[in-house]
């Protein structure tokens, strides 16, 4: 703990030095909450990426980058007279103690399921009873859709099973087709409705839609790179090929994927 305190103090001092208007870094001094926020989001994704790759040495560095983002925001808040890093740490410590009375208070032990239910009750109380409050706008749209749907489901606003959800997919797909000639705004709205209900399918099946889409992205990237590699072996690039030729390679790669390691 002493080492952690020492290193945290050192990091806070480094941040203060970087933001010093006289002797600091010009780039760091110019930043604001708004300009730093995208970097904060990016660093959180890089943490998730390192975990997905099981890159544990990389995770150490990515967690440091994410911690630095918290320190950066706290430093700007301190300069503006809003709060400081100690306030940030105190607030999260207080919240964790409040939300875990079975650990830090007199309540008895809870199962994981009981704790999840109690956690949601406490968060709802903190939101003042407004079901959808607190779902961050900056979340990826697919993840935010899932969270909004989960919140609504907790108060009974949900389909009882996946059947009606699948029917809704077909309905929304038809509406996308109908909207093709009704202008870009209407088309965007209908495509959004289709994506929203796809997130609902994933939720009903217990699948993380964001993780599922990341997996699909990775699969597409791997298969398209295989197309590039095969065409390269033939002395051509995708731009010099035809759709039919690329489709044939894609199908071959897909068949190999489905055959699995045993082939």
From TrEMBL:
Its EC number is 3.6.1.8. The keyword Acyltransferase does not apply. The keyword Electron transport does not apply. CDD domains: NTP-PPase_MazG_Cterm, NTP-PPase_MazG_Nterm. Residues 31-104, 166-223 form the NTP pyrophosphohydrolase MazG-like domain. GO terms for biological process: dATP catabolic process; dGTP catabolic process; dTTP catabolic process; dUTP catabolic process; response to stress; TTP catabolic process; UTP catabolic process. It catalyses: ATP + H2O = AMP + diphosphate + H(+). GO terms for molecular function: ATP diphosphatase activity. Keywords: Hydrolase. Coiled coil: none annotated. PANTHER family: NUCLEOSIDE TRIPHOSPHATE PYROPHOSPHOHYDROLASE. Belongs to the nucleoside triphosphate pyrophosphohydrolase family. This is Nucleoside triphosphate pyrophosphohydrolase. It comes from Rubellimicrobium rubrum.
